[in-house]
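Annotators were shown the component list below and the corresponding predicted structure, then asked to write short factual statements about the assembly.
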Amino acid sequence: MLEQMTAGLNFQSNALLLRSQRQQVIASNIANADTPGFVARDFDFAAALRNASGLQDPSGLPSAPDRTHAQHLRLGSTDPRSPDMAYTVQTQPSQDGNSVDLDRERANFVDNSIRYESTLRFINGHVKTMLSAITGQ
Amino acid sequence: MSMFAIFGVSGSAISSQSQRLNVVASNLANADAVAGPDGQAYKARQVLFQTVPMGGPGNAGVKVQDIQESDAPGRRVHNPSHPSADAEGYVTHSNVNPVEEMVNMMSASRSYQNNVEVMNTAKSLLLKTLQMGQ
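Structure shown to annotators:
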């Protein structure tokens, strides 16, 4: 019973954790906007959240290739809480090899912070709902 | 809370950018300097940024790895009456290009502002996280 009540909260806390990680990655990209040779990084939020909460891909395909032997190395990260980091694609190639697109990073940063805040509100709403259920009002 | 690392990352970027701004300021201040007693004019300086890994995956700060002097030849002006003129009557000025330095300054100050904004956003998100469940 109690597990059902907190299942939604678990999902939201996973989402919050991944949002804060993505915020950090984007902050690193913005910090390195002038560093020669720096390659911007990011991760697929939807896939990372599916991985962290143990959900299936809606397309029905497994997110990682199946292992046919127990001793095969697993592709990608084994920890569901640390997402697979990828490199962003250069939109405007520069002479110094830096692949940070500052406009894109700033848009991503604002987008991510709004989504972080909305996740926070979902959690607060969930807590309020449960509190009012407990107090029976 | 892993988002505290943002302050480290953006803080390193801010200090690197302010060092770049300092170097630009000394270049601009010496733009018209002539060769000193040793016959060497001021050489334009340029900071070299380098990525510093900071803890978790994807966390990357910045540091100033080196400050390099430009090898470009100094600006030579024919002015035989100048006390620093050489035997042919030329005065060697510094090799600073003021236009380049102004562009460098604008780029540095924009990057500085960007990182301050990142820190402000992270701060307000963390403050809201503190009020979670209230």
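Statements collected:
1. Chain A is about 55% helix and 5% strand.
2. Helices of chain A lie at 2-31, 45-53, 102-135.
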